[in-house]
Amino acid sequence: MADEIAIGIDLGTSYSCAAIVENGHPVVIPNEWGDLTHASVVSFLDKDNVLVGNNAKKNIITNSECTVYSAKRLIGRFYFSDEVKKAQAVMPYQIVEGENNSVRILVRGKKYSLPEISALVLKEIKEIAESHLGRPVQKAVVTVPAYFNDNQRQATKDAGRIAGLEVLRIINEPTAAALAYGFGKALNQKVVVYDLGGGTFDISILEIGKEVFEVLATAGDTYLGGDDFDDRIMKWLAEDFLGKTGLDLRENKYCLQMLKDAGERAKIDVGRSGEAEIFCGAICQDPEGRVMDLRATLKEEQFNKMVRDLVQRTFKVCDEALMSARMTAADIDAVIMVGGPTRLPVIRNGVRHYFQKEPLEGVDPDQVVAMGAALQAHTLLSSSSDTFLVDVTPLSLRVGTVGGYTERIIEKNTPIPIDKSKTFTTSRDGQEKVKIRVYQGESNRADDCEMLGEFEFSGFRIGYRGEARIDVTFEINTDGIVKVSATDLATGKKTSTTISLSSGLTEADIQRSIQANRAIHLAGRASGAAMPALPG
Amino acid sequence: MAPPQDSSDKPPKPAAKPPATVTPAVKRSPATSPITPAAPGVASPAAKSPEPPRHPAPNTPVLLRRTPASGSGSVAPPRVPAPSVVRPISGNPGPPRSAGAAPGAAQGAQLEALLAALEAQDYFQILKVEKSANPAEIKRAFHRVSRAYHPDRYYQLADGRLKERIIRVYKRMTEAYYVLRDDAKRDRYIADIEGPDRAQKLRFTEVAEVETKMAVKKQAEEQIGTTPRGRQFYAAGLFELEAQRWSAAERSLKIAVTYEPSNARYKEKLAEAQRKIYEEMKQKGESFKIK
Asked: By the 8 A CB rule, do A195 and A145 touch?
């Protein structure tokens, strides 16, 4: 019991990172080659062998149909969502529909759920940690974007279980970053965490006291990330090429991958040195069979212009968060930058200008989240710690009502854990059951919110419309996961459910996935299929 | 390896051959097939085309020329769930959910007693602050109780029931904090608990969004009038004002004001009509007649 260990995992869209607290300080766990971050890419080599991490990333071009990346963009989403449609257009791997409108990835004739894919990334991280620490790792705190909805959190938690990890807690990425920054410093500050990741943008405003880390407001955009910056460069390259040659590189998924790769590298180069030389040799042949190269130079000015609206969008979200916290940019004491894209001068300058403050130096935007997660894991395991977190729910929770409307039960930015109830009634005479639909979002129109799930409630006394009194209670736990229950106020009959519709995984599915995950061998890992039992 | 099929959407080896293109060939003769496998030595219709590739390069896809104007496929609108069938009724939060007291450890009993006590306490009592407390004091009070009851403190606790009780206690504390830290909510809550229904209103009930909208609408309505006759004459007055018949407008609005003497909007419009009459008279240069 005394030497229990738990790691913190930042499960990112593009890269993942793990950390552990050693002697009271969080340290990032490297793999055998000294890499501190690991590409969240899973490449299926054959039935039982997968390659995960930075080596798998190379396979995006050569083994594109069997290499899954950016799975986080799809986790916890419905098959009919816009994000899935967008992914289907650009991803080289096959995205198919599963049960209950869920999303599945079809690789080599086998369907995988998104939690199963993410579980393979987590399995790799777990084994990296095990071989570094020389002992089994069974517990972890896993981070999610603050703006993740309930389905996405639930699916992430499922992924952890499938990977054989006990997920002690799901915490928000910006909150973790703030924890890493302020832990043990006895600060008294209001800080902003500006977290621009590969696929999502989050902003959280926190008040850090001696022992307490209180999130005052959070806001975000789950459709905005570094990938969108790459897309802009890709679009420019492709259109330039189309104009010069009449060939559209975007028609072919192989060329598209080369473009994506070039776009990502160009973004990094522009950020680092102000200019990027782009060269893709033999990217395609024209109809006459001539081999074509792609060559271009991207200047910083030009790049900044391309992405200006994306940068502006992040500040709209900042406005929203500040308003929710009832503050102005001048009230902020420090700005913490998280995520690879925040290294770009265009972002740093924008942030400096918006908050009138220099972003904090000495915080590694790729590692700070994992370090915060490790600190939280450590806090949960040791009863001696005095630090506690007060986080909030990022989105309002609603119940669907007649006519396509919704009624808000819990407002966004409400501190958690919390429970709240509201009384509802029937809309028809003699109605035997009601369908309780749960939504998350800021509109009172159901169409504009994300549906989380639904359940039926029956067994109340049948009467005229408006007679039954059904109490619907929403509970948000410390993971930010929602539980909904309905009670008939006349009889006290109660039904409750943890809503999980879009991951489409039942308990039996999860058990099966756990078995399947164990059977899969991670190629290129010294430790083999299963962690060897250590003596003692 | 299976022979490649040019019409297939999914070639078996993606790296070696490109998938079919989406747009029809614009500059090509109809005799050639839409795609050309790049790998040398693989038989395909394209290889038999009049101009064979001069520089065959493996792993290099072939693209078709097309006009830049041609668009991409459209995306179908997302499916929308059907409307649901419950609707809210206003108000009452329902009976307190005091579960039957469970026998157990002394701590458990203690917490159960606390939970029961919380049911009868208002938010100020729960956080142990005065009703006059300012937001900073409320925050400090919440942090103080968090130090004692935050579930993270008890994560290691083996007793699941005990843990569950602590979370229940803590949830009530966050609820108290959520309501009291907000000026508008706090004011409404104080009015609630100082009223005759204190016992029912210990837990804050959010105003339904529908009701908020109704209230806004009602306010707008009130500005127009609360009595049917008043509204009628007000509407008539507005109509006359629009038509620039000032005296008629004045008459109608005067009657409207007799129905609703305290309606500021009516009086404002009446003053407007009277001003217009005065201006008109001045312009005409008529002297005032003594009635």
From this structure: yes
pLDDT at B90: 35
Residue A284 to residue B61, Cβ atoms within 8 A: yes
Asked if A410 and A385 count as a contact pair (C-beta separation under 8 A), the reply is no
Query: Which among B32, B76, B84 has CB closest to A400?
Result: B84
CA dihedral A316, A321, A322, A326 (to 10 degrees): 140
DSSP letters spanning B52-120: --SS--TT--B--B--TT------PPPP-PPP--BEE--S---S---PPPPP--HHHHHHHHHHHHHHT
Contact criterion met (CB < 8 Å) for A478 and B151? yes
What are the two backbone dihedrals, phi and then psi, of residue A113, each rounded to the nearest 5 degrees? -80, 165
Note the pLDDT tens digit of each residue in B42-81.
344 444 444 444 454 455 666 766 544 433 433 333 333 3
Domain residue ranges of chain B, discontinuous segments joined by +: 106-201, 213-284
Contact with chain B for residue A490, Cβ under 8 A: no
> Does CATH number 3.40.50.300 belong to domain B106-201?
no
pLDDT tens for A497-526 read 665 444 568 888 899 999 999 999 998 775
Write the ipTM. Answer: 0.88
Q: Which domains are delineated in chain A? A: 7-185+362-387+510-522 (3.30.420.40), 226-305 (3.90.640.10), 397-498 (2.60.34.10)
Which of B86, B144, B149, B211 is most worth mutating to test chain A (most A CB atoms within 10 A of its CB)?
B86
Query: What is the side-by-side order of every strand in the sheet holding A470-476?
Result: A494-498, A482-488, A470-476, A418-425, B87-88
